[in-house]
Design goal:
This protein has 274 residues and is α/β, with parallel strands linked by helices. The strands form five sheets. A three-stranded mixed β-sheet has the order 2-1-15. The longest helix has 17 residues. The termini are close together.
Length: 274
């Protein structure tokens, strides 16, 4: 059975502006945030996932976004492994050691990168394609081109292909806000988030591409998650509905309004362990 990791939003808040959604954000309703987080967890349980939890740490208000502090992979020779992130914002950098310790205690190999002055933000910018043949790697706002290049060099040694994608719109600061793998060969994207070169790469590597418009993208539909033939999403918009019908995926809607104040939704809140 597949497993997924969550961190409770015990200390979640919007305390500094790290992306455009956080500018002038309304105060976080802490009780509602906890209820919405539980709703997201129940959705993953409902579609067949085993739920794991990492303990939150006081002072790390963004630790709830478990998708960012590490990249999770598996290799025939290496076994299960994680690549620790180097977060761009100093307030998020301490999260990484807590996540790394959690994985190390469970037998994952830790593959350290010498980032120097570069940044790489885990599965916020590194998304496994649905058939696990390659990793989409966003860069431009949080992760840097150099960070992706350092990651690519290590993945090349393991025989894992990395496809770099440059992001062009600061509202879509992470790749998981503008691209969602749906099924083998199929992706959901907001094309305005990418450079022309990145769009050509997506078209070259994908058999079926479904596009959403700006309004839909700003409602975080590309931050939905394909999970065991369901698609867990904060909204069901017309373009998304068309894509899910074509791919025979069942929509499962969950509310994430409190986390959207921080620029995140379903994908940001979870971390797949396989």
């Amino acid at each position: 059975m597949n497993r997924v990791l969550f961190c409770p939003p015990t200390y979640f808040d919007v305390l500094e502006v790290k992306n455009p959604f956080m500018q002038n954000a309304a105060p976080v309703d802490k009780n509602l945030a906890m209820r919405q987080w539980e709703e997201v967890r129940r959705a993953f349980s409902r579609v067949g996932f085993t739920l794991e939890t990492i303990e939150p740490v006081p002072g790390l208000e963004d630790m709830v976004f478990s998708n960012n502090p590490v990249f999770v992979g598996v290799h025939a020779d290496v076994g299960p492994f994680v690549v620790p992130s180097r977060m761009r914002h100093p307030s998020r950098q301490p999260e990484v050691s807590h996540y790394v310790a959690w994985f190390r205690a469970r037998g994952y190999r830790v593959v350290e990168l010498d980032y120097g002055e570069e940044y790489l933000e885990g599965h916020g910018d590194l998304l496994w394609d649905a058939n696990f043949t390659h990793v989409w790697a966003g860069h431009g706002f949080r992760s840097t081109r150099g960070g992706v290049q350092k990651f690519t060099a290590v993945m090349d040694e393991m025989g894992i292909e990395v496809v770099p994608l440059e992001l062009a719109d600061p509202r879509f600061y992470h790749l998981d806000t503008c691209l969602a793998p749906l099924a083998p060969g199929a992706v959901l994207i907001y094309p305005g988030a990418f450079t022309d070169t990145a769009l050509r790469a997506i078209r070259r590597k994908s058999l079926r591409i479904y596009e959403v418009n700006l309004d839909e993208a700003l409602r975080f539909v590309c931050n939905g998650v394909s999970a065991n033939r369901s698609f867990i999403t904060p909204q069901l918009t017309p373009s998304l509905k068309f894509a899910l019908l074509n791919e025979r995926l069942e929509p499962l809607c969950v509310a994430t309004s409190e986390f959207e104040k921080s620029g995140g939704s379903v994908c940001c809140l979870k971390l797949f362990l396989e």
